[in-house]
Amino acid sequence: MLLRGDLDGAEAQLRDALQRRQRVLGAAHLATAATSVNLARVLLVTGRLAEAEVLLHDALSSVGKQVPAGDDWQTGWTQGVLGACLSAQGRYGEAEQLLLAGYATLKATKGPAARLTRETLVALVKHFHDRGNQAKVDEFTALLNEARRQFNRRYGSH
After folding, report:
1. In sequence order, which residues have a C-beta less than 8 Å from that of residue 100 and are 6 or more positions away?
2. Where do the domains of the chain lie?
3. How far is CA 5 from the centre of its chain?
4. 70, 76, 84: which is closest to 124 by C-alpha?
5. pLDDT value for 72
6. pTM of the complete model
7. Mind listing the pLDDT tens digit for each residue in 97-118?
8. What CATH code would you report for 70-158?
9. Which contiguous run of DSSP H or E holds residue 62?
């Protein structure tokens, strides 16, 4: 539903899934953390940044208890989404560290052309644009364009 733009429907389904996963798997399970990140993405798009941030900190804590830092794509994904959330709140210093760490982890674990890696690059471009750092915008835009070219070579244009 999120990909189709039905944010209300996506939010309702994700809240329901999160409640079920918390009940069945527990709050610290990786699947519960992934659902929290997806719900936080919806909240980020709809401007509910404080609520998204709480979910993301909880998810990052859960992931961190189960995998070594930097060794898992889910760590990088959660860092990237949390970084985007903090950047949207103007908390640029915290955001930048998380975005860069998330990008590095996703690039290493999923590859530069993977969807989550590209999404994190988009967040980095926006972050540096909002900070007025054109050199970094250009740097990360070039990386994003190359990642898109790699994806298109591998899977065709979509």
Report:
1. 83, 124
2. 1-66, 70-158
3. 17
4. 84
5. 86
6. 0.91
7. 999 999 999 999 999 999 999 9
8. 1.25.40.10
9. helix 49-66
